[in-house]
Fold this protein.
Amino acid sequence: MEPTAIEATVDFHADGVQHGFLKLPHSHDQSAWGCVTIPITVVKNGEGKTALLTGGNHGDEYEGITALLNTCHQLMPNDIKGRVIILPMMNAPAVTAGTRTSPWDQGNMNRAFPGSPTGSVTEQIADYFTRYLIPQCDTALDIHSGGKTLDLIPYAASHRLENLQQADACAEGARLFGAPYQVQTTEMDATSMYDTAVEQQGKIFVTTELGGGGTSTPDSIAITQRGIHNFLVFSGILQDDYRHPPAAPVKLELPDKHCYVQSEHAGIIEFSVHLGDTIKQGDLIGKVHNIERTGTEPIPYYAERDGILLAKRHLGRIYIGDTFAVIAEPV
Ligand SMILES: [Zn+2]
């Protein structure tokens, strides 16, 4: 196997709790012989399954980062059978900078897979996941949310896969996560995603979107924390009962690219709908105001399909090409 420059300070085969780092040598203006450090926690108790839990794949998505940091210092070996590997800040340089992508190479972690051992900082981290971390796990949970620019209804999701048995297992994990919504999704651009790298290795994978706006709320953290607990029970690792949500998740589907509504104008978006609203084809979603001059009519955008408003742009400022609404279909 091609070597990696990344070194882990934790022993993946040792029982107990270890808090350490993945260290990637990185020579730059502020540190000639420095390294990028990615915090990692391993909790292990004997033989069993392994779950790989990640947050901060995008650096401004705080629901997963926060809930996984809680998990790192709360989860005890006696609570589990098997092993849990937790990286709350997968793209640690981006989390440090408070940005979606890495300040070192503008790397978007979820567009950097499978990565490269000789590539940029982000590509090298992605490569370590592909060749060293993913192969060690049976199940993987990657916690996303909208970040600074998007806001989403809270959901756990799985993808359509050629292996129907694997797809069913992923969907079951998403259901038992216990978020208010469960989504079966088609990605706009799946080729270079972490999701795809995990699924291609035959693992059971659940992704989530649990809020957004570049912050968290007591509600979004509670949903995330409950979901992590339930995912570890689902994985056969946490020796406890499921924490059930008030109701079974509402099932939604993102069947194709037409779910994503993109602006063809720049300006200020005025929304006519709320997250979670039921939308009919032809309904006004919002209007884009021209901010270069007064006296012009705002440009209306109408729904091209029926559905539920799954996501909306969080920022008022909008540019041409921005996805500002996502309409999911009830299953
Ligand atoms: Zn994300």
Q: What stands out?
A: The CA atoms of residues 149 and 315 lie 6 Å apart. Residues 218-234 form the longest helix (17 residues). The mean pLDDT is 96. Helices lie at 62-74, 92-97, 121-133, 164-177, 194-200, 218-234.
